[in-house]
């Protein structure tokens, strides 16, 4: 095992590039690429990897929610995934969307999930094989999940509002200028339709990037503990809600807190700022203070 | 296909005739061709605009040359490595599709051709930079035209 992983609460939730290179033909795993760049998989991917699109495959077309259980089962079946398949997610943007897809799979009760530390960028930077050949796996019959696990790992507006009022731990993982309200879009992105800038009153700003190294890998356990335990005053028993704009960057933080630091109850508020910042009568705090 | 220079109109026609899979393949082929849009050794330009804007993931350089006799525009575009694949594809499409058009024609091009090429499914949250390159080209044309007017007035 990668020695860095041994410090994490759940080291089994990560694989590194060397491990994956040696297990590409393991029949019990399925490598899944999930990206922000909608065409990136088509330009080359890890051999044998399938593509799961965060929007087309995991979200509902009409309601702002996740796919139906039937649709989720179809996505899995089409990609040769069974409930016993271990899925290794990786992607662009330091694994934002890989973590998001992993979190969505957990919503549907698929627990055999891992992240490739460093994601697509590290695999590519190390000169490991890439291909444009799309794999074809024998179709499976993934059973329709009978329940969703939203209450355990997903927060809604009302949950975030209750946390805000009670001053329970809310982590805003966006960039500092989004948090203060100076920007209503992410740096390097166009405006994505939000009326007001600022943050949820009481939320503390810990940008997702503080948990990642420049090569897209996760920071070590001691570094993460310093950020979230020492500096933020949280502990693994803390009940935490994380948010960003649409829930992808906060999925990264959700993964860090849940799997790397072993927090027992972390919820991702996927409505995030695109809901809160547009919501009628939702209170907003501006500036660098939590408010 | 009113409002589009002929080479761009032909590209739009082609994409509109393709099923989704082939549309995707062609977009990848155009994205692969984006490096050919870079400046070549010895080329000179009347306007060079290289910058990293807050709303794009990487640096984009737009290089513009206009033939004073024919008013035909010649474009080169250089992209940083983190630009999205769709944006790379649109770069190659615009370099080919706008070659020879006048700055005035480019300024008048409606951006409604973008979804016609890319397809509605791929134009969505987090792929809006597909419009960015056209905006930058129009910005360069506007500066060039303003300079021309200023020179004529002065």
In words, what does this structure look like?
The complex is a heterodimer of chains A (291) and B (154). Chain A has 291 residues and is α/β, with parallel strands linked by helices. Helices cover 28% and strands 12% of the residues of chain A. Chain A contains ten helices and ten strands. Chain A has helices spanning 17-22, 69-78, 96-107, 119-125, 150-153, 157-166, 176-180, 221-231, 249-260, 272-276, and strands at 14-15, 29-33, 50-51, 86-90, 113-116, 154-155, 170-172, 204-205, 239-243, 265-269. In chain A, the strands form two sheets. In chain A, strands 1-5-4-2-3 form a five-stranded parallel β-sheet. Chain A has a five-stranded parallel β-sheet with strand order 6-10-9-7-8. In chain A, helix 3 crosses helix 9 (249-260). The longest helix of chain A has 12 residues, at 96-107. In chain A, 45% of the residues are buried. The model of chain A has no long low-confidence stretch (mean pLDDT 95). With 154 residues, chain B is of the alpha+beta class. Chain B is 47% helix and 12% strand. Chain B is built from six helices and three strands. Chain B has helices at residues 6-16, 20-33, 85-97, 103-108, 113-118, 132-153; strands at 47-51, 60-66, 73-79. Chain B has a three-stranded antiparallel β-sheet. In chain B, helix 1 packs across helix 3 (85-97) and helix 2 (20-33) packs across helix 3. The longest helix of chain B has 22 residues, at 132-153. The model of chain B has no long low-confidence stretch (mean pLDDT 90). Chains A and B meet through loops of A and helix 2 and helix 3 of B.
Task: Give me the count of strands of chain A.
Answer: 10
Order of helices and strands of chain B: HHEEEHHHH
Q: What proportion of the residues of chain B form beta strands (DSSP E)?
A: 5-15%
Helix/strand-derived category of chain A reads alpha/beta
Question: Proportion of β residues of chain A?
Answer: 5-15%
């Amino acid at each position: 095992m990668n020695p860095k992983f041994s410090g994490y609460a759940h080291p089994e939730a990560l694989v590194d590039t060397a491990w994956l290179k040696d297990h590409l033909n393991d029949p019990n795993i399925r490598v899944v690429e999930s990206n922000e760049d909608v065409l990136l998989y088509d330009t080359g991917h890890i051999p044998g990897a399938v593509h799961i699109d965060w929007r087309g495959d995991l979200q509902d077309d009409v309601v702002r929610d996740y796919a139906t259980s039937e649709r989720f089962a179809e996505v899995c079946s089409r990609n040769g995934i069974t409930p016993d398949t271990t899925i290794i997610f990786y992607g662009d943007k330091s694994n934002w969307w890989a973590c998001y897809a992993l979190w969505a799979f957990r919503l549907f009760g698929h627990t055999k999930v891992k992240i490739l530390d460093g994601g697509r960028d590290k695999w590519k930077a190390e000169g490991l094989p890439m291909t444009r050949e799309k794999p074809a796996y024998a179709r499976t019959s993934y059973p329709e999940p009978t329940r969703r696990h939203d209450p355990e790992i997903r927060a809604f507006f009302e949950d975030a509002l209750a946390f805000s009022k009670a001053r329970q731990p809310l982590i805003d993982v966006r960039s500092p200028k989004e948090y203060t309200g100076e920007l209503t879009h992410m740096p390097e992105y166009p405006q994505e339709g939000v009326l007001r800038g600022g943050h949820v009153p009481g939320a503390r700003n810990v940008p997702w990037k503080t948990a990642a190294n420049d090569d897209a890998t996760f920071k070590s356990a001691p570094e993460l503990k310093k950020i979230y335990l020492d500096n933020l005053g949280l502990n693994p028993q803390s009940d935490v809600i994380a948010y960003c704009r649409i829930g992808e960057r906060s999925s990264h933080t959700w993964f860090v807190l849940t799997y790397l630091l072993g927090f027992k109850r972390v919820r991702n508020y996927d409505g995030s700022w695109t809901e809160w910042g547009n919501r009628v009568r939702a209170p907003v705090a501006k500036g660098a203070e939590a408010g | 296909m009113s409002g589009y220079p002929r080479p761009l109109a032909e590209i739009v026609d082609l994409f509109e005739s393709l099923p989704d899979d082939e549309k995707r393949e062609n977009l990848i082929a155009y994205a692969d061709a984006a490096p050919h849009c870079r400046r070549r050794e010895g080329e000179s330009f009347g306007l060079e605009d290289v910058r990293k804007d807050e709303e794009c993931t990487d640096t984009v350089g737009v290089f513009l040359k206009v033939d004073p006799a024919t008013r035909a525009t010649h474009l080169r575009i250089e992209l940083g490595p983190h630009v999205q694949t769709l944006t790379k594809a649109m770069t190659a499409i615009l370099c080919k599709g706008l070659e020879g058009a006048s700055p005035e024609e480019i300024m008048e091009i409606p951006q409604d051709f973008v979804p016609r090429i890319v397809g509605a499914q791929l134009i969505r949250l987090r792929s809006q930079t597909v419009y960015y390159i056209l905006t930058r080209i129009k910005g360069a044309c506007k500066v060039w035209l303003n300079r021309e007017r200023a020179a004529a007035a002065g």
